[in-house]
């Protein structure tokens, strides 16, 4: 049998995004921090792109946590009726500590560094450097913050998170600490090796396993995810004489220009500036349209949110729905009621006229105002919502209650 080799030439078509379109899509998804990092990378590669420090106009926006610390507590409407966010919770606790000067500065930076899990997302020496204080002072402040309930917040690792909970529960001992130093062996279930390393009987190791498994490795995950972290927002909305006005937060972005003189790179620098300006214009258009439709929520809280989809906004502005989705993905907006994620102002319609987000806010408000000795059952909550004009089924209430992290009635009862 003879084998022959043939060479064939074929044609095919495929779509491929050019570099400019790829960069445009990347910028649409970027928040203020991501956009700043992108610009810094571009400026490092192209010296013709000049970045200046963002304008610091205190009339634009001042970090809400600074006002909270000086005023004795965070704006109670920050979470807009759905239970406090992790940032709102720790900010309120920090405000009650009566910290001053450098200690307050360190506490603010540590709060900003919190991850949604409740762990610190930044090394302590970095925080100390940012605050301009000795490492020992930062460590002292951190130790105070680690006493904030629930235990485990502000941990720098999983083992520290679990240890903080063990100390709070009064079950901390040498054997448990030894197990926490070897979590890899615990995960593998290697009781025999841990027993040899710690020089204790295997049943002692097993007992510590059972204790540790009762702890929560992510104590921050139980807080409301609705409120954005207290950070410089991308948009600002304020009520003026002419009504609600939406603007870009210029203080969160560096100003851009092209360096004088001739040479390569000037065209590329102008292209980057055009991309950013296009991104900002699109962000402002979408933000203004969303907030125009949700003025009632700005006035009265999230219980007044109207049903709104990204398709509604895309059709009104002549954009693709995917463009709206990318823009709102990481965008935060500072309102008189707190810093919120723009994407949380979208909500599907439930029943005749209410949005799902509004129903969740109303449900959380009912639970917050209930008698703790006689908490409302899901059926009673459904009836209360229906009496208020929001017809919902008991199973819908149960689903929303789980979404908000609200325990069942028998677990909420306090004697």
What distance lies between the first and last C-alpha atoms, to the nearest angstrom? 91 Å
Order of helices and strands: HHEHHHHHHHHHHEEEHHHHEEEEHHHH
Q: What is the subunit organization of this protein?
A: single chain
Radius of gyration: 26 Å
Profile the largest sheet.
Answer: 4 strands, mixed
Shape: globular
Strand content: 5-15%
Query: How many domains is the backbone divided into?
Result: 4
Tell me, rounded to a whole number, the average pLDDT. 76
Low-confidence stretches: 57-83, 225-230
Tell me roughly what share of residues is in helical segments. 40-55%
Would you summarize the structure shown here?
The protein is α+β, with helices and mostly antiparallel strands and 415 residues long. The protein has 4 domains: 17-63 and 224-347, no CATH class; 64-145, no CATH class; 158-222; 350-412, Arc Repressor Mutant, subunit A, CATH 1.10.10. Helix content is 50%, strand content 8%.
């Amino acid at each position: 049998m003879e084998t022959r080799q043939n060479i064939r030439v074929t044609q095919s078509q495929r779509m491929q995004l050019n570099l400019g379109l790829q960069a445009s899509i990347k910028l649409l998804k970027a928040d203020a921090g991501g956009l700043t990092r992108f610009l810094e990378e571009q400026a490092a590669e192209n010296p013709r792109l000049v970045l200046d420090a963002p304008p610091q106009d205190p009339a634009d926006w001042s970090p809400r946590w600074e006002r909270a610390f000086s005023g004795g507590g965070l704006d109670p409407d920050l979470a807009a009726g759905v239970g406090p966010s992790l940032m709102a919770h720790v900010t309120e606790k920090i405000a009650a500590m009566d910290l001053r000067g450098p200690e307050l500065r360190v506490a603010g930076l540590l709060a900003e560094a919190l991850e949604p899990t409740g762990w610190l997302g930044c090394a302590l020496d970095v925080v100390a450097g940012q605050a301009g204080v000795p490492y020992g002072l930062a460590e002292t402040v951190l130790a105070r913050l680690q006493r904030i309930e629930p235990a485990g917040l502000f941990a720098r690792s999983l083992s520290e998170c679990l240890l903080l909970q063990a100390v709070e529960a009064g079950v901390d001992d040498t054997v448990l600490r030894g197990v926490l130093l070897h979590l890899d062996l615990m995960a593998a279930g290697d009781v025999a090796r841990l027993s040899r390393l710690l020089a204790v009987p295997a049943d002692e190791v097993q007992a510590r396993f059972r204790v540790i498994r009762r702890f929560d490795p992510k104590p921050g995950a139980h807080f409301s995810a609705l409120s954005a972290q207290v950070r410089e927002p991308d948009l600002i909305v304020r009520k003026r004489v002419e009504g609600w006005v939406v603007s870009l937060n210029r203080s969160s972005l560096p100003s851009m220009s092209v360096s004088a003189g001739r040479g390569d790179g000037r065209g590329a620098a102008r292209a980057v500036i055009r991309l950013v300006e296009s991104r900002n214009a699109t962000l402002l258009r979408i933000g203004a349209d969303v907030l125009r439709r949700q003025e009632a929520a700005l006035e009265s809280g999230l219980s007044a949110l109207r049903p709104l989809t990204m398709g509604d906004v895309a059709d009104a502005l002549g954009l693709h729905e995917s463009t709206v989705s990318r823009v709102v993905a990481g965008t935060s907006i500072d309102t008189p009621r707190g810093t919120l994620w723009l994407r949380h102002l979208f909500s599907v319609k439930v029943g005749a006229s209410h949005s799902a987000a509004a129903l969740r806010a109303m449900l959380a408000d009912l639970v917050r105002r209930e008698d703790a000795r006689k908490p409302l059952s899901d059926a009673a909550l459904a009836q209360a919502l229906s009496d208020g004009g929001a017809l919902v089924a008991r199973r819908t209430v149960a689903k929303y209650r789980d979404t908000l992290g609200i325990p069942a009635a028998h677990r909420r009862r306090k004697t």
